[in-house]
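Note on ligand handling. Small-molecule inputs were canonicalized before submission; formal charges were left as drawn, and no protonation-state enumeration was performed. Where a ligand contained multiple stereocentres, the stereochemistry in the source SMILES was retained. For adenosine-5'-triphosphate, this procedure yielded the string shown in the input block below.
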Amino acid sequence: MSASAQIVVKDVSHDYRPPVGRVVRALEDVSLSIREREFIALLGPSGCGKSTLLYLIGGFLRIENGRICVDGRAVTAPGPDRGVVFQHFALFPWKTVKGNVLYGLERGKLPRAERETRAQAFIDLVGLTGFEDSYPSQLSGGMKQRTAIARTLAFDPQILLMDEPFGALDAQTRSLMQTELLDIWQKTRKTVIFVTHDVQEAVYLAERVAVMTARPGRIKTIVDTAFDKNDPQIYRARTFVDKVDEIWGLVREEAIKAQGTHAR
Amino acid sequence: MSASAQIVVKDVSHDYRPPVGRVVRALEDVSLSIREREFIALLGPSGCGKSTLLYLIGGFLRIENGRICVDGRAVTAPGPDRGVVFQHFALFPWKTVKGNVLYGLERGKLPRAERETRAQAFIDLVGLTGFEDSYPSQLSGGMKQRTAIARTLAFDPQILLMDEPFGALDAQTRSLMQTELLDIWQKTRKTVIFVTHDVQEAVYLAERVAVMTARPGRIKTIVDTAFDKNDPQIYRARTFVDKVDEIWGLVREEAIKAQGTHAR
Amino acid sequence: MAHVTGVRDRTSRGWRNAPASPFVARIGWGLARSASIVLLLAGWEILARSGTFTPFVLPALTSVLERILADAMSGDLFLGASATLYRALTGFLIAAVGGISLGMAMTRSIGIRWFFDPIISVGFPMPKIAFLPVVILWLGLYDVSKISMVAFEAIFPVVTATIVGIKGVDREIIWSARNMGASNRELLCQIMLPAAFPQIMTGLQVALPISLIVAIVTEMLMGGNGLGGGMMSASRFADSPGVFAGIVEIAAIGYCLIKGMSMLRRRMLLWHQEALEPSTV
Amino acid sequence: MRRTGLRYLPLLLLAIAWELLARLELISSSALPPLSHVVVAWVDLMRSGELVSNGYASIYRAMTGLGLSVLVGSLLGIFMAWWRPLNAFLSPLVEIFYPMPKSALIPVTVIWLGFGDGSKILLIFLGCMLPVTIGAFNGARSSEQALVWSARSMGASRLRMLWDVVLPSALPELLNGIRTALALSFILLVSSELIVARSGFGYLIGFLGADGAYEPMFAVVLTVAFLGFAADRAFQAFMNWMLRWRT
Amino acid sequence: NSAEPVKIRVGWVAPVTNWGTILLEKKDLARHLGKSYVLESMRFAGTPPMVTALANHELEIANLAYSTLAIAIKNAGMDDIRVIADEFRDGVPGWYSQEYMVLADGQIKKIEDLKGKVVATNAAGSAVDIASRAMLRKHGLIANRDYTLIEAPFPTMRAMLAEKKVDLIPAVLPFALNPDLRKIARTLFVQRDAIGVTDMIVWTARKPFIDKNRAAMVDFMEDTLRIVHWYLDPKNHDEVKVIAGRVVKQPPERFNWLFTKNDTFRDHDMRPDLDALQKNVDITHELGFVKSQLDVKQHADLSVLEDAIKRLK
Ligand SMILES: Nc1ncnc2c1ncn2[C@@H]1O[C@H](COP(=O)(O)OP(=O)(O)OP(=O)(O)O)[C@@H](O)[C@H]1O
Ligand SMILES: Nc1ncnc2c1ncn2[C@@H]1O[C@H](COP(=O)(O)OP(=O)(O)OP(=O)(O)O)[C@@H](O)[C@H]1O
Ligand SMILES: [Mg+2]
Ligand SMILES: [Mg+2]
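Structure output:
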C-alpha cells in the first residue's frame, strides 16, 4: 500500500497461551495499512480477534510474529500517541469520573486550570455533567462507557483505537456521540481505528471498512465507504443501504463459519 | 391493568445512597404490569434506570418505596423463577465456561449426566463449542456475553430478565441469538423483560415496548409492537419501519432531555 | 431535578421497610458491639470471685482495674504505653514503607524478585527470636534494636500482601494507564498502589498487631520499660494484678490501634466494593 | 536442575555472608557461630535422632493449631463479613485478642488447658487466626455484588452463596492470609515451646540457647526455617493452582 | 501400695546444673521408677511460668531460687510450699562462687567506679541479680539511680562486655570458664563477697501433695539420692562428662568442671542450709522484691529427705 501509511500491520499472527489449557490462535497473518487521518472501521464476528489486533497496535501485547509500525517506528510499547477506548472501559475504580478524565491530561503540558476546563468540557460533551464526583461503581453501563470515551478524547492522542465504544449507548446518545466523534476527527486530523458490530455505524463513520474472518482472524476484505457524513438522510440513501447489505453479507459469512469452526 | 398480570410493579421509586456523595434518585413512581408469557422490551436513554428496575424485579435491591409482585407474591429476594442476564455478564471468574453454565443447573433435580448434556447443548447453542474449559478472562467480550446467556437459559427460569444481552455481539450472531431466544420463548412459555438500546431489535422481538423517561426513570409510554416474528423480511415492512421511527422519536426526546438535565 | 434529593420526601412519606432512624440504629449497634466485651468481663469477675481460683491464678477484675487506675494516676501507665507505642509504631511504619516498596519492586524487577523471593520464603517462618543476641550485639539493648526487631517481623506480611495485590490488578487497567503515557514510576504509584490498596491494607492490618506483639515481647526479653517490661517484672514477682493489668492495657491499646486502622481503611476505600453494606439478598 | 540452582542462589549468597560474618569476627562467634559449624552440629543432631523426634512433636502441634485457625478463622471472617450481628458481637472480642502477645496469655490458658500440648496448640491457634480472619473478612467484603446476585438468582441459598461466591472471591486474600499464618505457625511454635515444654523444636532451642550451645541451637533454628521454607513453597504452588483463573 | 504410680513432674531451667535434667539419664539406678512413681522432667524458660505451674498443680517439684521461693510464698500466696531438698550452694569455702567481671584493661577498678555505668543482669530479681544489687548497695550505689541495669542472656554476656555495651557482667558456670572471657576480663567481686554463703536453688513441693503421696515421694527421693551420689562420685567423672555433653550437644571436655571443686557446692545428701537460706531471703526482702518477711523454717519439710537418707544408710 501507499508509502505514506501511518500504521502498517504486516503479517501479524498472535497466539494466546493461557497458563492452563491449549494455545488459542487469535490472529493469523494480518496485514493492514492505514493512512494518516484515515477513519477505518473493523468488523468481524465475535471472538475473531478485533480486540487483539487493537491491543497489538496499542503496544500492550508483545508482537511475536510479524511487524507493526506506527509513523515508521516499530511498536514496542504503549504511548500517548495512540489513545485506546477499551471494550470493558478499564476505568480506574478509585478515581471519580473527573479524576479518570483528568488522568490522561496530567502528563500533558497544560497548566492546571486549563486541564480542569478541558476535562469538564469533555465530561459535558459526553453528557455526564453532574456526575463528576461519582465513582465508576456508581454509574450505569452507558455512563461508564461515556466516561471512558471522554477520558481518551480529552488527552488528544494522534491515533484513536476504539473498541466498540458506543456499544452500551442508547440510539440517540450513540448518534450524538457519532456526530461528536466525526467532528473531532475532522477538526483535529486524527487517525481512527474503530471496532464496532453495527454495520450501519461502520459504513456511516468510516472511510474504509475492514472485515475480518472468523478466528483465527485475518483481513477478509477492505471495502471503501466514503459517504457524505453531513447528510442526515444518508441512512436512507440507496447506495448506503446497499453498502450496508454488502458488508452485512460479508460478516455474516464469517459469523456462520465461526459458528461452525468452534468445534475444532 | 389486567388481573392476570404475572409481574406487577406499582409506584416503585428507588434511591441510590452511595457511601459518599449525594443520593441519586434512579426511579420514580414506576408502574408496569406484565402478563404471563409476555415479551416486553424496555427502552430508555443511558442512565435512566433500566438496570435498576430489573434489579428490583430480580429482588436484588431492597424495594423501599412501592411494591413489586411476581405471581401474586411480593418480591423480597431473588429466586430461580427469575433468571437474569446481567449487563456486565457477572460470570464467575473462577469457573470455566462449562462450570458457569452448569452452576445454575446444580440446584435442579436433573441427574448429573443430564445436566452435563444440557449445559453442553446451551454452550453449543451460543456457539462456544470448544471453549468449555476456558476461563472468562480468556474470552472475548462477545463470548463472555454468550456464556452469560447460555448460563441463564440453561436453568430454564420462568421469567427472563435480560439487560442488553446482545450488546456485544456482531450483527449475525445477534440475529441468530434473537431467533434462538424467540424459539425458546415460544416453546417454553416464558415471560421476558428485555432491555436493549436497539429499537429495531425491541420492535422485532417484543410484543410491547416500554419507553422510559430520562433519570429519574418513569414509564413514558408503552407501545404495542406485535409483528410476525417468523417473517424474515419484516425489517423492511412499512409498518415495522414506522413503528421503529415512532419509538426512536420517543427515546430521542428523553435522551435529549437527559443531555440537558445532567447539569442540574 | 428536585427529585434527586430524596432524603427530604423520604421522611414525609414514612416508607415501609424504611430503616430505623440512623441515630437509634447506631446506638443499637454500639450496644451490640459492647455486649461481648461486657460478657467477657462479667464472666471474668464472676469466675474470679467464685473462689475456684486463687487470686494469684486469676485476680478479680476489680483489683486489676484498681491497679490500672493507680498506674494511670502515677503516670507509669502513660510512660510505659508511650514507650511501647513508640517502638511498635516506628517499627510498623518502617515495615509498612519498606514492605510496600519491596513488594512493588519485586513485582517490577526480575532481579529483585530473584533475590528476595527465596529469602522471604526462608525468612518469614524463621524464629527470629533466636537471633536476638546478634541483634543486641549489633544494635544495642535500647530502642534501635527493638524497633529493628519489630520492623523485621512486621515487614513480611506487608510484602506478601503487596505482591498478591499487585498481581491481581486487572491488566486492562494497567494498559489504560500506560496508554495515557504513565511512566513506570507513575504506573507504580498511581495505578498499582491504589488498585492493590485493599490487599495492601489487609497486610498492614495484619502487620500492626504483630508490631505491637513483637514490641512487647522484645521488651519482655530485653527489658527496657514499656508495657512488656512492666508485665515481665510483674510476672517475675508473681504480681498477678500487675500481669493482668498489662494484659488489659495491651488489649485496650491494641483495640484502639486496630479500630483506627479499620477506620482508615474505610476512609481510603470509599470507592471499593466493601464500602457498601454487603448485599444480603 | 540448573534453574533451581540459579533460583536459590540468593540463599547460597546469604549462607556465604553468614559464614564470612562469623569467620571475620564481624559478629562475635559466641552470638553467631559460623554456618559450617552449625551444619556439623545439625548432622550430629540428626544422627542422634533427636531432631526427628522433637520435630514430630512440634509439627503435630503447629499443624493442629494452624488447621484449627484456618478452619475457624476463615469461617469467622466470612460470616462476620456477611452477617452484621455476628460481626457486631464477635469483632470486639477478636480485636482485643489480636494484639495480645500470646505468651502473656499463658497464665490464662493454663487455667483451662494446663501446660501440655493443649495450651501450645491454643496459642498457635490464637496467633495464626489473625491473618486468616482478616484476610477472609476483607476478601469476603470485596466480593462483587453482581456475582452474589447472579448466584442467588440461580437459586443458591444465602449459605450456599457464601460458599459459591464469597469464598472464591475472598480466596486471593484468604490464601495470602493463610500463607502468613503458615509462617507465623512456625514462629509461634518455637515461642510457645520456649516457655515450657518437654519436647519440640522450641524446647531444643530454649535449653541449647540457655546453655550457650549456639551451634546446635542454630541447627535447630535452621531446621525450623527450612521446614517453613518448604511449607511456604508448597503452599505457594497450591495457591497458584487455586488462583489459576486469574490471568 | 496403690496400683497407679504417682506422677511426679520436676521442673528445671538450666540444663545439667539442675538435677532435673540428668536424673533420667541414670534410669538404671531408679529402682522405684515406674512402680510407685513415674517421673517427667519439664523445661521452663524461667521461674515465673514455674510458679504459675505450681499454682495450677501442673508441676509437683519446682527448683526455685531463694528469691523466687520468697516470691512464690509471699507474693503468689502459696503458703503451703515446702522446701524439701537442696540443689546447690554458692560461696561455700573451697568451692566456686559466682563471679562478677569487668574488662581487664577497662576503667572500672573498684565498685565505686560503676557509678553512671551499665550493669548487666540476667533478670531482675534473680539470685544472680540480688547478689550484685546487694554488693553495689553496700558501696552506696542504687540500681537505676546510680547505674543502669539492663537484662541480657547469660551466653551473650561475654560479647556484651567485649563490645563495651556493658561494664559489669555476672559470669556464671559454665560461661565463667570460657578462656576467651578470662583473656579479656577480670573478676571485680564474687557472690560470697556480696552476700556470703548462698543457698542458690532448693527443691520445693506443695504440702498437700507431700502429705498425700509421702510413700511415693520417699521412694522418689531415695532414687534421686542414689543417682546424685553416683553423679557426685569422682570416679564416675568421665562418664558424667559424656552424659552432660550428650544432653546439651557439646563436647564432653566442656564439662571438666562439673561436680568438681571448680563447680559450686552440692550437698551429698541434698540437705539445704536453712540458715543461709534465711539470710538470702531476708536480703531479697530488704531489696524490696517481696512484700513481707519469711520464716524459712516454717516452710521447710525435710522429713521425706531424711527418710530417704535413712533408707540408703
Ligand atoms: N487472555 C486470553 N487468553 C486466551 N485466549 C484469549 C484471551 N483473550 C482472547 N482470547 C481468545 O482470542 C480470540 C480473540 O479474542 P478477541 O477479544 O480479540 O475477540 P474480538 O474480536 O474482540 O471479539 P468480541 O467482538 O467478542 O469482543 C477469542 O477466541 C478468545 O477466546
Ligand atoms: N451503585 C450506585 N450508586 C449510586 N448511583 C447509582 C448506582 N447504580 C446506578 N446509579 C445511578 O442510577 C441511575 C440509573 O442507573 P441504571 O444502571 O439503572 O441505568 P440504565 O438505565 O441501566 O443505564 P444504561 O443504559 O447506561 O445501562 C444512573 O444515573 C446511575 O448514576
Ligand atoms: Mg473484543
Ligand atoms: Mg444498565
